[in-house]
Amino acid sequence: MQKKRYLGFTHAEVGAYLFSIWGLPEELINAILYHHTPSLSQDVTMTPLLPLHIANVIEHNMINYGNPHARREFDYVFLERFGLNNDVEGMIDECRQVCVEVGVNE
Q1: Helix boundaries (H) for 1-106
Q2: d(CA 40, CA 13)
Q3: Of 29, 48, 64, 99, which is the most buried if we count CB atoms within 10 A?
C-alpha cells in the first residue's frame, strides 16, 4: 500500500477512525477498515463489508483510473466464507453491460 508507506496510514484507516469518533456502528467501522483486506476481518455473517468489498473491486476494475496498478482483486478467502467464489467474476462484465445499457460512461 503506497499511501501507508508515504503517509503512515490509508484512507481505510482514516475512514474507520472518523466513523468511530462519530459513533457509527462497529460493523460499519469494520467495513471501511477492511474493504481492501476483508479476510483480515472476523466477519462470518453478512455485514456491510461484503457488498463494500465487491463494489470496490468492481469499481476499480471498471474505471481503472488509467493506471493498471489501480486494479483490485477479489479476496477469495473472504468470499469463500459466503460461498461466493464462483459468483463474483462475472460481476464486472455485468456492471459494464448495465452501464452501457443505461448510458453511463466509464
Answers
A1: 2-7, 11-21, 26-34, 49-63, 76-80, 91-102
A2: 14
A3: 29
Q: pTM of this prediction?
A: 0.79
For position 25, what pLDDT does the model report?
97
- How far, in Å, CA of 90 to CA of 56, rounded? 15
Q: What is the pLDDT of residues 50-76, one digit of tens each?
A: 999 998 988 887 776 566 666 788 999
> What's the CA gap between 104 and 92, in Å, rounded?
14
Cell 455473517 sits at which residue? 45
Judge contact between 8 and 17, C-beta under 8 A.
no
Indicate the residue type of 47.
Answer: T
